[in-house]
Structure formats: structure tokens, C-alpha cells
């Protein structure tokens, strides 16, 4: 007889997940303190992640979930940069940076990164920094990024993914409902994001052995690349 009982698992199941209306409100609040809190932690890693694009003058870059624009100083004015975000508060902070530093190569647009208005293959690179665990459908975000990037382009994902170390992973799944309340999922795995998207993982790495964030370089095509 087939066993009809639910599968035994040591992994606690949580239903808490993100939703765009709540996220927009949460990040409007975060906007006030983001740069001097979380923003302070990310500088070095974000610099490294964006350098993995290996951009060329004239390249078009889309930064999905650009937030307060902490990444803006990484993009030289030889690039054309579009930054999109859901939160008016976060985007207003990014707009201040654009004005203050006269970044005429940057355009900002408010919108949902899961359903963008851009044409297929209209960007050389797509950057998703600390945002894939914030959207309601991480898998859909990668589908959209794949649609938008050129066939030989790169998608750079910088994110914390649920730990594969059993105790830490267990804690991250248990604590997920709390993290969701403050603006991100702690139970998201890279495998869940990639499932069925058809993107190649060119490589992924951490900037140090103790770093909890990963830099993942993806492409629709196999490219002969290794970490720089
Ligand atoms: C943790 S912040 C990261 C900001 C920035 N990328 C960074 O690394 O500092 C996540 C950002 O994603 C934005 N976001 C969340 N869901 C989004 C969606 N569906 N579409 C566009 N932006 C979204 C939030 O408003 C927030 O600004």
C-alpha cells in the first residue's frame, strides 16, 4: 500500500512570503535609514558584484530593485543605466543621488520588476542586488531578467540564500516569518530561484569564507568566464 502520510522532514514549513503592496510600504519606511544601516554593509560586495559584468562602453544596464541607489557610483558614465524600484521612498533617495552627482547616464523608473515595460533583449546586463529574496516570485524575476538581457548578456545576482548548513538553514526557515515582516525572505534557495528558468550559472562565489551573501553570475548562454 502506498504510504499516504505526509513526508517526514526536519525542515519546518512556513507559509510566510512577500507581497508587492506590503513590500512597497516596508521599503518606504526603510528608505529613511537604509543607507546608514544595511547600505553600509553592502558596499564592498556590491562593488565586486558589479565588476563581474565586465561592461564595455555603451552597454545598457538594468538594475532591478535599485533601492536608494547605493550601486549608482559603480556605473561609469560610459554606460546607460536604468534603475527600477517598487518603492517611491527608496527611489526618491536614488533620485537625490542622481541629482546631486549629475548622473545624466542614469534613468529611474518606478515599477514592478516582475512585469517590466522593456522590450526583449534590450539590456547587455541585468543587476539584481539584494532584491531576489524581496520580490513575491523570485523565479518569475529571473524569467523576466532572462527576457530582458541579450542572449550573450549577464545577469548578476547578489543575495543571501538559505544556508545548506543544517542548523543554520533550519533557523533561517523558522525565522522566515519574522524576516518577511521586515522586508525579505530568509528561506529562499538559489535552486528555487533557478528552477525551470533555463539560465546557466556561469559561476558563483562569496567575497570571503565568512560572508553570508553570494555573487551569482548567470547567462542565457554558456560563456567562457571565471571570477575576475
Ligand atoms: C534590500 S533592497 C536592495 C536595494 C539595492 N538593490 C541594494 O542592493 O542596496 C530591495 C529593494 O527591492 C525593491 N523591490 C522589492 N520588490 C520589488 C519589485 N517587485 N519590483 C521592483 N522593486 C522591488 C524594494 O523596494 C527595495 O528597494
Assembly type of the shown chains? Answer: single chain
Arithmetic mean pLDDT: 91
Q: N-to-C SSE series?
A: HHEEHEEHEHHHEE
Helix count from the secondary structure assignment: 7
Q: Decide which structural class fits the backbone.
A: alpha/beta
Unreliable spans? 1-13
Question: What is the 3D shape?
Answer: globular
Bound compounds, each kind once, are: S-adenosylmethionine
Helicity range? 25-40%
Q: What would CATH call the architecture?
A: 3-Layer(aba) Sandwich
CATH fold-level label: Rossmann fold
* End-to-end C-alpha gap: 55 Å
Give the class-level CATH name: Alpha Beta
* Sequence of strands across the biggest β-sheet: 3-2-1-4-5-7-6
Mind telling me the C-alpha Rg? 18 Å
Which range does the strand content fall in? 15-25%
Give a quick account of the main beta sheet: strands, pairing sense, barrel closure: 7 strands, mixed
CATH superfamily: Vaccinia Virus protein VP39
